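Posting for a labmate who doesn't have an account.
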Amino acid sequence: MTLIWLYLLGLTHILSGHFSSLEIAMTIVVGLASIAGIALVAHLKSGLSAATGIILFVIFAVFQFACFRASFLPSIARH
C-alpha cells in the first residue's frame, strides 16, 4: 500500500502500473483502518510481552509481503 502511494506521488519507481480509482480508494480505507487499529491497540492493555508482540508483527509483515509477491504471479496478475 505504501509502495502504491509512493509511486502515485512520484517518489519511487519500485512499483509501476495503472491503479483504478477503486484500488486507490481501497488503499485509503485500509490505511485509515490500520491507523485506527494501531491507535486502539496502543490504548488497550495486553497480556502479550513486547517480544511476543514484535514476533507477531514480523510474522504478519512477512505474510503480507508474501501475498504482495504472489499477486505478481502470472496466473493471479491476469485476473
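Reply:
Got it, the C-alpha cells are right above this. The helical segments are 2-8, 21-43, 50-70, 74-77.
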